[in-house]
């Protein structure tokens, strides 16, 4: 604190002691080179703002000679520390900031997670429990994070959980990093970046494949099953428990009719079938609260137990003869 800055900043030395980056496990290899190079360049940016001029110099502040004014060293240090935290947590396959769970679900890091990694946290009163103390990112962290966001380094998509009674609770936001920023800040060529991302795609694919081999249900499978179950429940609610493929009742006496030689009978039967099909379709549309579109009509009609004209005739015990 002897420097006169409340953040404890020293212009001569980068605060590497603030970093608390997690160690990469031995069985997981190491961080990709494009990310470690970004972290190395972040240290260089602290002492040399020319590493990235759009971050190192004010765009609308000028010196007496007309040149852009240099950003203060404590601000560059804060940006470097926060970029360290972000770069150490980037998934190159999706460019999101977070990690995969065993079931393939992606877990986004919160702002507090990143602030912990770069030593920019404070303690304060928990808004949900006035008697408890909670950790928060410091204002210095938020200023540096906003600086990176305004520079195009990261895009944030807020997420909320509905707790009921019109109350929403924030969830860790989805943070997506710009590939162009990674390349520009780390001086990475397009070919090297493509190679690194291709390798990341393969690692994720292998990870998810192993999950399936060991019987772990992936997040994608869960979503697909949940959607399928909702469709099944909707069809059951509208049409009861009828089987998808109805068969002629044994109580029906099979009648073979040459309907091709009697156009009047054929027209009457087709009209009856069209009425049947229209009622079935109307029931589906009423449940969905919207009209069916294109191929969706055929698919849901069949899932609801709808019969083609020929199958409908067979269900009534009528078979065409040549």
Give a written overview of the molecule.
By secondary structure, the chain is of the alpha+beta class. The chain has two domains: 16-217, no CATH class; 221-320, no CATH class. The protein is built from eleven helices and eleven strands. The chain has helices spanning 33-47, 53-56, 73-87, 111-117, 139-150, 179-186, 190-213, 219-239, 263-288, 295-303, 309-315; strands spanning 57-62, 68-70, 90-91, 96-100, 106-108, 121-126, 129-137, 154-164, 167-177, 255-257, 318-320. A hairpin with a 5-residue loop joins strand 4 and strand 5 (106-108). It starts with 32 loop residues before the first helix and ends with a strand. 18% of the residues are buried.
In whole angstroms, the N-to-C terminal distance is 100 Å
Strands, total number: 11
Mean pLDDT: 78
Beta content comes to: 15-25%
List keywords for this structure.
322 residues; two-stranded antiparallel sheet; 19% strand; 3-stranded antiparallel sheet; alpha+beta
């Amino acid at each position: 604190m002897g420097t006169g800055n409340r953040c404890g900043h020293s212009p001569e030395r980068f605060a590497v002691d603030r970093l608390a980056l997690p160690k990469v496990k031995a069985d997981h290899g190491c961080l990709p080179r494009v990310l470690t190079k970004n972290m190395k360049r972040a240290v260089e940016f602290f002492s040399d703002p020319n590493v990235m001029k759009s971050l190192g110099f004010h765009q609308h502040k000028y010196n007496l000679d007309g040149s852009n004014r240099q950003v203060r060293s404590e601000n560059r240090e804060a940006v470097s520390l926060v970029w360290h935290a972000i770069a150490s947590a980037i998934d190159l396959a999706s460019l999101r900031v977070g990690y995969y769970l065993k079931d393939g679900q992606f877990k986004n890091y919160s702002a507090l997670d990143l602030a912990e990694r770069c030593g920019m946290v404070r303690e304060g009163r928990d808004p949900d429990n006035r008697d408890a103390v909670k950790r928060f990112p410091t204002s210095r962290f938020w200023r540096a994070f906003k600086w990176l966001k305004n520079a195009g380094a990261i895009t944030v998509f807020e997420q909320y959980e509905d707790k009921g009674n019109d109350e929403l609770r924030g969830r860790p936001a989805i943070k997506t990093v710009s590939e162009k920023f990674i390349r520009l800040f780390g001086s990475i060529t397009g070919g090297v970046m493509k190679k690194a991302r291709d390798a990341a795609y393969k690692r994720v694919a292998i990870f998810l494949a192993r999950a399936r081999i060991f019987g772990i249900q992936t997040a994608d499978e869960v979503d697909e099953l949940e959607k399928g179950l909702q469709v099944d429940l909707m069809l059951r609610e509208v049409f009861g428990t009828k089987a998808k493929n109805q068969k002629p009742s044994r109580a029906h006496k099979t009648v073979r009719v040459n309907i091709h030689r009697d156009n009047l009978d054929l027209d009457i039967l087709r009209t009856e079938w069209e009425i049947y099909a229209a009622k079935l379709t109307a029931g589906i549309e009423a449940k969905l609260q919207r009209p069916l579109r294109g191929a969706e009509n055929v698919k849901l009609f069949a899932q609801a137990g709808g019969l083609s004209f020929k199958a409908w005739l067979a269900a009534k015990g009528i078979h065409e003869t040549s």
